[in-house]
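Record pair follows.
FIRST:
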Amino acid sequence: MPYRAIVVTGPSAAGKSSFVSDMADKLGWQVASAGIVWKAEQARLCPDGNVTVGTFWSHIPRDFFRELYFELSELARRGGVVIESRYATAMDPRYCLRVSFDAPERTRVLRAIRRGDFRPDISMAEARAALRSRLQDEQWVGQRIFGLENYTRQPVHVSLNSGMLTREAEVGILLEGLKYE
């Protein structure tokens, strides 16, 4: 396999974390997540937890995301890692296989509710609006940091709709494809 790393991108609740964990287990690689770092920094800087990306941005050093993606790129360059990231374009495609995940909005909303992203009594309409707002926030960061007009349309090697496949099928498809690279 010529790729030293795999980077998985896509919107919230698209199935990235599950796939990253499963893929890393199958390959015996480590996992790295921009989202985990982002959430930890957000909790540290904005402990009330009720904050938009714009508000978060005003509290965070300007180079936070650039430094984070530099560190993730270094991990990818060294290899043996599956990375969860919203911005795959920060990773070099010469040694990093870029995989995009998405799912229908309804599927993403149900997943986000099931995993506890929202209060238990939230309505589907409220959860849908919250996910749409999160997507807008992520677009804003992508434009501001990486100059991306639409981060969901980044150049990738493989694109999967996790609303149509089982987790096992997703991993199997990518593992089979890697045999022929």
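SECOND:
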Amino acid sequence: MQLLQVQQSKITYLTAVRRPEGQLFLPFAAKKLTEHYHFGGVPRTMEQMQETPITFLHGVFNGTAIDKFEIYNDGVIVSGASNTRVFDAFLDDLFSWIGPELGLTEVPQLKHGRIYESAVVAELAINADKIAPWSKALRKLIGDKWEDAGRPKFEFEFSQLRFGPDPHERSFAPINFSLERRAGIPFDQNIYFSTAPLRTDDHVEALAALEKSLS
């Protein structure tokens, strides 16, 4: 298993803050946040600062770009094309920084943890026929019926795998784990696009386990 690209990572951190000294002055906070993380796209009017979410675009943390940082009443979202380790470190830095700089503290009773999303491109040496061995006869039937209708012959092969929770079981369901052939690349190159509700490193570990079981 070879990781080729981290295409997108996202962390949703459900939390809330308070300011014991009184209400936060938003223009000052936006200016401080922009200076600290060098955001290029920032809210500049009071209307933008009172929107939900308040959005900051293309910042930098420890030399790595942050595509988007969004502030909600019940948490924040950070996203970009980097390992989630970067964004975990960014959030740790942010919530240690807002205390001395802005006088904000988290409300322990309203901290509900971090929710991860990962999207990667990887090369996997897997035998796709092992994913659904029962499908061989069905795939042949589909191919034969396609050809019987006067169309060019095709081999119908594995294209996509997806696992997910029942969305009715929880009010906030994680994204699906998915594996699919990378669009525009011949199947014999074994390049796949995958999503998971995991940290990037955990996502890579899951793909390695999948490759081992299907090699």
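COMMENT: The helical segments are 26-37, 46-49, 84-102, 136-148, 200-214.
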